[in-house]
Design goal:
By secondary structure, this protein is mainly α. 71% of the residues lie in helices and 0% in strands. It has six helices and no strands.
Length: 178
Amino acid sequence: MNKIYECIYNNKTKKIIVILAFITLLTYTLMLTNIFGVVSEFDRIYMLDLSIFYNGEEFINNFSTIAAQQVYYYQVIHFIDYVFILSFYPLLTIIIAKLIKKQYYFLFIIPLFSMIFDFIENMIIDLHMHYNFSKTMGTISGVSTLLKFNFIFISIILLIIILVRKFKENGNIKISDN
């Protein structure tokens, strides 16, 4: 864990933050807009990824109604989502790590748990569209989704607490260069 922390505190971190922020904003915008013409296809289907929780039966029922063309669109959105996952969670991790005091450095891994559960959720959904998993796998995906959102919430609350404390201590917020 110390190696990860030391890696975050190198001189290139600010450039990495800017690049990750740009990629995060770009991919988020792509997922919300109709740039690839895929979002309109989702008017007729329900994206489980956006639910806080779903069970195995809801998982199976949702994907039993998706046509082949909609599977393609779902996977296009998921491809963009994978890029988002690989930019957003590391960005949040780096920002938290740069703002916290060294004795609390272990807290920077919280967003990485969200990243892991987001990957699990997406992989199960993507594989299910081709291999038709059981309700149990659907439940695992639903629990992964719930854990993803919980860890995102915890990460954002942690970030807010850190920012408020930094502001109270210094009157401004300075990203550490340790």
